Amino acid sequence: MARAPLLQLSGISLTFGGDPVFDELDLVVHPGDRVALVGRNGSGKSTLMKVMAGLVEPDRGVRVVPPGVSVGYMEQDPDLAGFATLGDYAASCLPEGEEYKVPMVAEGLKFNPETPVATASGGERRRAALAKLMAEAPELMLLDEPTNHLDIQAIEWLEEELKGTRTAFVLISHDRAFLRALTRATLWIDRGQVRRRESGFDGFEEWRETIWAEEDDARHKLDRKIKAEAKWAVEGISARRKRNQGRVRALAELRAERGSQIRRQGTAALELESGTQSGKRVIEATGIAKIFGDKTIVQDFDLRVLRGDRVAFVGPNGVGKTTLLKMLIGELAPDAGSIKLGTNLEIAVFDQARARLDPNATLWDSLTNDPLMAVSGSSDQVMVRGVPKHVVGYLKDFLFDERQARAPVRSLSGGEKARLLLAKLMALPSNLLIMDEPTNDLDVETLDLLQDILGEYDGTVLLVSHDRDFIDRIATSTIALEGKGRASVYPGGWSDYVTQRVLTTDSVTFDNVKGSKAPDPVKPAAKADGLTFTERKRLEALPALIEKLEAEIGKLSDFLSDPAMFTKEPVKFRKGGEALSERQAQLAACEEEWMALAERA
After folding, report:
1. Cross-strand bridge partners of residue 211
2. Measured in Å, how far apart are the chain's first and last C-alpha atoms?
3. Residue 519, pLDDT score
């Protein structure tokens, strides 16, 4: 017998500023669904998710959630007013006795629940919002860009948690690897219409292109029919006017149908122009070191970057990736060693902190008042790679309409802010491009285009990112910062780094790796150990999962060891006992799986 839906939207229509966002939209989410919600920046993904959460009231239509079903939403900008610490906020809706869940989730997401709300960064606030949702474990989770501000380790932890949950979820993310690993169905928002595909994100782009090709074919047929009917109307109507008024009305209906079709939004006109060619050697670092207080960022690190290299920097949040990047381009001096920059360098920087964007300035002023883009004596033009261009025309290249030109930057979505920053970056000629977390909030189509132009760029690229797929597509080498001053250089992207780290004993311990002395590339044998690639990855991941479960069991055992707990706090005691039994069962299953895989290997 089919189970009732967790959420149903029927006939939803919503208008913002005169433009319809959705019209007569229908949508159903079933128990166990793992859904990717995809679409262009500005297509209404976050708005639809807020309608699903009951936070935005549609103009028309019905939202139905069966009695007893809980729907949880991860807020992009959570309101923490009235809470002393991030942990207080994350635990605020938990039933009595389940507060222990927050520190467990916080450990995986890598934030401290004791952090005061007053001093918490935007990233920490978002991680607290995600921890709150994960700890509450509603029947349906609505996750809007949950991987933003997470490092790769935390993303992989979250990925494993969501793989193991029975909770249904709808997920917005720009991270292809994350979407491919988790989703089983796809909701695609396109021009106010939502299409559902009973398959995960993998293959979405081919499906989208097929639908667009069918649309184009149907549009061309309609255009030909209108042209033929219009010709008849001019040449043949006069002789049989009364008899053919129905055909005239049909022509009007065809024209109305064609006029009602909404044009697809184009892609942003991203373009990079290399400046004067740099010297062959772009950066040479020898024996550099940097220490802040008792924290060592790098020690005795060597690196050579040549013209045309694409170098990715990876590692946990706070390990020092941006600090190392600033040293390499001369913004920050090392404590020891030397850094030599090549000749004729023209550096352009994409800053993850969006420091070049004044939230109170309009988009127009943000461009025309930028000293690097301003055109002397003009208030409506910007200098784009040496050529004056009208500010509105340049904004349209990045998918902003004329009305947005006079809107404040603070009114933009995260993806729109990223596009505006790209507009500033790409107006300048350069031969060394510094990109610090460029992928946050960008839609998949813009990421595709950014990847293409970086591939064609004649200059050199230094990239900090937590997007594994983007690193794989861009990087020719990867610098992994592992903490305690250890940094190692690996040829290739993220997947190459992971493979070499797994297959090379020295790189597993990192004890004997110094600076850029990368291990020799090793080609993995195809199922030489009797395991598939996925099974090898699972075998590698299980020890950490077993260790995590053992730690949780220890905490719960300590919690239940108080002899007075049963009588004083019976609810907490019962909840803790249930959680302990659940984790003990999970531990036994993981240990059995590890033994089976290890024996086959």
Report:
1. none
2. 42
3. 37
Residues 111 and 86: their CA atoms lie apart, in Å, by 9
Calculate the CA 527 to chain-centre distance: 32
Is 475 within 8 Å of 312 (Cβ atoms)?
Answer: yes
Q: Over the stretch 439-481, which tens digit does the pLDDT of each residue have? A: 877 777 778 778 877 877 888 999 999 999 899 988 999 999 9
Cα separation, 449 vs 470, in Å, equals 12
- Edge to edge, what strands does the sheet with 460-464 contain? 347-350, 432-436, 460-464, 310-314, 477-483, 486-491
What are φ and ψ of residue 196, in 5° steps? -115, 135
Helix axes 570-600, 533-560, angle to 10 degrees: 150
Element (H, E) at 31: none
Rounded Cα–Cα distance for residues 108 and 165 (Å): 15
**3-state secondary structure labels for all residues of 395-412:** HHHCCCCHHHHHCEHHHC
The contacts found for 545-554 with CB under 8 angstroms, 24 or more apart, are 545/160, 545/590, 546/587, 546/590, 546/591, 546/594, 548/108, 549/583, 549/586, 549/587, 549/590, 550/587, 552/104, 552/583, 553/580, 553/583, 553/584, 553/587
pLDDT for residue 419: 83
Task: Name the burial class of residue 321, with classes exposed (0-12), middle (13-18) and buried (19+) by CB atoms within 10 angstroms of its CB.
Answer: buried
Instruction: Please give the angle made by the CA atoms of 357, 361 and 364, to the nearest 5 degrees.
Output: 95
103 forms beta bridges with: none
Instruction: Give the per-residue pLDDT at 578.
Output: 77
Residue 233, pLDDT score: 56
Tell me how crowded residue 583 is: count the other CB atoms within 10 A of its CB: 20
Tell me the C-alpha distance between 507 and 30, whole Å: 44
CA angle 251, 255, 256 (to 5 degrees): 115
Q: Label residue 371 left, alpha or beta by phi (over 0 means left) and psi (-120 to 50 means alpha).
A: alpha
* Distance, CA of 439 to CA of 155 (rounded, Å): 15
Contact, 553 vs 515, CB < 8 A? Answer: no
With residue 61 as reference, give the H or E element that holds it: strand 60-64
- Contacts of residue 371, defined as CB under 8 A and 6 or more positions apart, other chains included, come to none
Give the span between the Cα atoms of 526 and 543, in whole angstroms: 23
**Is the CB of residue 17 less than 8 Å from the CB of residue 42?**
no
Under a CB-based contact definition with an 8 Å cutoff, are residues 487 and 324 in contact?
yes
The pTM of this model reads: 0.69
Q: Residues of the chain whose pLDDT is less than 50?
A: 1, 237, 243, 258, 260-264, 266, 505-528
Q: Are 270 and 453 in contact (CB under 8 A)?
A: yes
Q: Please give the Cα distance from 450 to 441 (Å, whole number).
A: 13
Rounded to the nearest 5°, which phi and psi values hold at 530? Answer: 85, 0
pLDDT at 355: 65
Q: How far apart are CA 485 and CA 483, in angstroms?
A: 5
150 contacts 178 by C-beta, under 8 angstroms? no
pLDDT at position 529 is 53
What pLDDT score does 325 carry?
92
Residues 102 and 97: their CA atoms lie apart, in Å, by: 11
